[in-house]
Amino acid sequence: MGDGVAPRLAIEGLTRRFDGRAVVDGVSMAIEAGQVSCLLGPSGCGKSTTLRLIAGVDWPDAGRIHVDGQPVVDGAARVPPERRGIGLMFQDFALFPHLTVADNVAFGLPRRDPGTAARVRDLLDRVGMTHHAAAYPHQLSGGEQQRVALARALAPRPRILLMDEPFSGLDDRLRDDIRDETLAVLKAEGTAVLLVTHDPAEAMRMADEILLMREGRIVQRGAPYTIYNNPVDLQAAAFFSDLNVIRGRVQGALTQTPFGPFLAPGVPDGTEVDIAIRPQHLAIDFDRAGRGPLPTASHGDAARGIVERARFIGAVSLVELRMEHDGSLLKAAVPSVFLPRPGTPLWVMFRRDRCFVFPRGQAARPQDPQNQSRAA
């Protein structure tokens, strides 16, 4: 930081191998006090192992970990877990079944400290569980248990809180409310948070910064808006949403497609590329479908497809079309209700300003913030 204050958590070159394979491979990151960072990636990419290394329940083969500028893992320095000032919160909550809600929250605090009872009351009030202080975990719902687990994790005032898929056991309708409530409490406490999840929506909702992990490495990092709108490669784009992909070959910084030419600046001639577009940015030419005005010229040329299936899924209708020019299947997300019958011909176009052009088969290099996708 410019003011000389060390990050709350700093990791450099963290590596862990099992049977000769690097499960965590040179991971580096920095998290400030009050910041929520999200380690996002598919199952098996090394997220939880990274958390275990930071917590001290496993030891790295290489790398350094500093908390507030002080080494906890650095060469010969290996601070035990209980002295790191790091809290843990897991998906199973791990509440003690024989203790009341209040006693669960107080666990780990000094019993005779006059401030313990006040701290417990304050946290229970923050998470809306004051009236359940005398209840036992089995008497609570999943959402209530999650609130208690959060209060217990925050009770000792950890400098850093590690959260491993903490909301995965909750049903969808409850999950969003609990996420928002949890985020409000974490921000009020000013704790540095590292959240591990495989759910892109959860990362987008909660994180100040997302670190996208793949095969043990960080391949992209940034604010949710940035990482969603500037994916570093095709895999990164596909991790956040469904994609339509059109293939082409670059000639003179342009790729010719049935939807018209697409810019590919800086890509050498002859390079095969994938042009990716999300379903919500695939436009149907409703003028030719007899349902309204023609989209603007920014959508480029139209190509014809035949409807294979259309489903209403809430706020949008998902229309799947088999394209006549190459037989590919494209998906369009259309606002409101639009359910053409199978076999209906429709003309579709791309939102050019929302397309991404990637050299085919080229994956991002780890931890290279300059390696950005090229938007058409």
How does this structure look, described?
One of its GO terms (cellular component) is ATP-binding cassette (ABC) transporter complex. It is an enzyme of class 3 (hydrolase). This protein has helices at 47-55, 101-106, 114-126, 142-154, 172-189, 200-206, 224-229, 234-240, and strands at 9-18, 21-31, 36-40, 62-67, 70-74, 77-78, 86-90, 160-164, 192-197, 209-214, 217-222, 244-251, 254-257, 260-263, 272-277, 282-284, 303-312, 316-323, 329-335, 345-350, 356-359, 374-375. The chain has 376 residues and is of the alpha+beta class. The strands form 4 sheets. It has a 6-stranded mixed beta sheet with strand order 7-8-9-3-10-11, with helices on both faces. A hairpin with a 2-residue loop joins strand 12 (244-251) and strand 13 (254-257). Helix 3 packs across helix 4 (142-154) and helix 4 packs parallel to helix 5 (172-189). The longest helix has 18 residues, at 172-189. The relative contact order is 0.12.
